[in-house]
Design brief:
By secondary structure, this protein is α/β, with parallel strands linked by helices. It is built from 5 helices and 5 strands; from the N terminus they run βαβαβαβαβα.
């Protein structure tokens, strides 16, 4: 699994962005952070991020709406919602819109790191599985084409 995963932090609280960035960079991740949903959308149009940490309350858009847009734009990116305002409604809505994890503020950084590692591992396993399936399809198709070619040569 690639330890140099790219992580995008989307939070309007500068202190949270700085702390998360420092800790995640110390763990070996490539980290970028933004303070608005608009900036997050622009960044994800230009670069691929393995994972995004998305605050539920942003100044220009609800984190749930951003989650939905990011899911359409980059479906393979893991999306984690972070919030200091947990409600059952937010949690259910996030789950219904495809969030990969829901983290409460103030958070235990060890637990956050564990969730990030777990999500990146799942992403890597999904990628590996997809690559194996593509390779299997190609091998099967080549075999089928070879059999078709042999059949043509036998029955011209």
């Amino acid at each position: 699994m690639d330890k140099t995963a790219r992580i995008l932090i989307v939070d309007d609280d500068e202190n949270i962005r700085k702390v998360l960035t420092t800790i995640l960079e110390d763990e070996g991740y490539k980290v970028e952070s933004v303070d608005t949903a608009k900036k997050a959308i622009e960044r994800t149009k230009r670069k691929f991020y393995n994972l995004a940490l998305i605050d539920i309350r942003l100044p220009d858009m609800e984190g749930i709406e951003l989650l939905t847009r990011m899911k359409r734009m980059t479906p393979k990116m893991r999306k984690l919602v972070i919030t200091g305002y947990p409600t059952l409604q937010n949690a259910i809505e996030a789950l219904n819109r495809g969030v990969d994890a829901y983290i409460l503020k103030p958070f235990d950084m060890e637990k956050v790191l564990e969730v990030i590692r777990e999500q990146l591992k799942k992403q890597w396993e999904e990628k590996k599985y997809s690559q194996e399936k593509v390779a299997e399809f190609i091998e099967t198709r080549v075999r089928d084409l070879n059999l078709e070619e042999k059949a043509k040569n036998i029955n011209p």
